[in-house]
Amino acid sequence: MKIVIGLLSALLLSGCSTTTLELPKYYVLSGAPSTSAVQDELSTQVTLDNIALADYLRTSNMVLQVSDHELFFSTNHLWAEPLKVGIEKALSRHVSLTTVGETSPIHLDLVIDYFHVIDQDSVILAGNFALKEDGKPLKKQRFSLSEPLNRSGYHYSVSVMSELVDRLGSDISKQIEEYKSASIGESTVIGSQ
User: Fold this and answer.
1) CA-CA distance, 105 to 46, in Å (whole number)?
2) Cβ neighbours of 124 (radius 10 Å)
3) How far apart are CA 41 and CA 147, in angstroms?
4) DSSP per residue, 74-143
5) Is the dihedral of CA 37, 175, 44, 85 positive or negative?
6) DSSP state at residue 28
């Protein structure tokens, strides 16, 4: 009888301890679709050929860098969709990611080497991108963006991460538009001679 009471007590205690565990929380980078999506009038059509993520980013766990060489993978704070998909959705708010159009599209390859929270202090997004048109390389550029965190918490960190992807999308879009403006200017000068 004492053994049965002891087992029941142990089961009750273990049941109580599991109810205090934090439930997982799921996050997305892109949030709700924007009503002010990229407009077609002057936007250049871009084909996203590839987004390559560093191996440590190919997990649903959110990553926190806790020291110079140590990463922590959260078990309770998770991406609701593959990070690659979230980044593509967030980029599409700034870069028209379609192949429809009369001009040949610009092709974009994106490599993300770092994209995580650094010890609750800041968020980093670093890697490189390459732009090509008709198989011809136009530009290859490294980027390293960071933003300090003014508050703590994963929810706030994800909003800052989303802002960094938005900033990258704006930078890429601006460079594509500058290229297109320069090439239109060249063809106008050539055509007017």
Assistant:
1) 5
2) 17
3) 32
4) EEEEEESS-HHHHHHHHHTTTSB----SSSPPEEEEEEEEEEEEETTTEEEEEEEEEEEETTEEEEEEEE
5) negative
6) -
Residue 122 buriedness (CB in 10 A; 0-12 / 13-18 / 19+): middle
Segment of 6-10, 124-128, 150-154 carrying the highest mean pLDDT: 124-128
pTM: 0.77
Q: Name all contacts of 180-189 with Cβ < 8 Å and 24+ positions apart.
A: 180/44
Q: What gap in Å lies between CA 150 and CA 157, rounded to an integer?
A: 9
d(CA 6, CA 96): 65
**Residue in the block written with tokens 């997990």:** 59
